[in-house]
Specification:
CATH superfamily: STAS domain
Structural class: alpha/beta
Number of strands: 5
CATH architecture: 2-Layer Sandwich
Strand content: 15-25%
Number of helices: 5
CATH topology: Transcription Regulator spoIIAA
Oligomer: single chain
Shape: globular
Largest sheet: 5 strands, mixed
Radius of gyration: 15 Å
Length: about 130
């Protein structure tokens, strides 16, 4: 039996960090995504996880994405997924996750949404210039 393989690419688009897992995202591989997302949240409040190169995703991976989204929210930021592959659509539909994690937009669309969110949260902070 072969061990699932996952790589996670990272790039910055302005204040947004895009993490792009490549391979299988499941209980055997999510530690790498958790590590990369935790590191990214130290640098940015806004993360977009590009799922376009994920060839398999299970319920454990969905739980990890929800947990990472909560961590980002606790820091005043957000985590959204982008470019949800067709095979993951059933999980997102079953668990009604589109409203929680996104997934319907492409990476550029989620980055624009993240920038809008960052701009809005900046104005809402006490003492922030309007």
């Amino acid at each position: 039996m072969t061990t699932p393989v996952l790589r996670v690419r990272r790039r910055r688009l302005g204040p947004v960090i895009v993490l792009s897992p490549v391979g299988e995202l499941d209980g055997h591989t999510t530690d790498l995504l958790i590590d990369r997302a935790t590191t990214a949240l130290r640098c940015s409040r806004s993360l977009v996880v590009d799922l376009s190169d994920v060839v398999f995703m299970d319920c454990h991976a969905v739980g990890v994405l929800i947990t990472l989204s909560r961590r980002a929210h606790e820091r005043g930021g957000r985590l959204q997924v982008a470019a949800l592959p067709a095979h993951a659509h059933r999980l997102f539909t079953l668990f009604d996750l589109y409203g929680v994690l996104g997934g319907r937009r492409d990476v550029a669309g989620e980055c624009r949404s993240a920038l809008t969110h960052l701009a809005g949260s900046h104005r809402e902070r006490p003492g922030a210039p309007a």
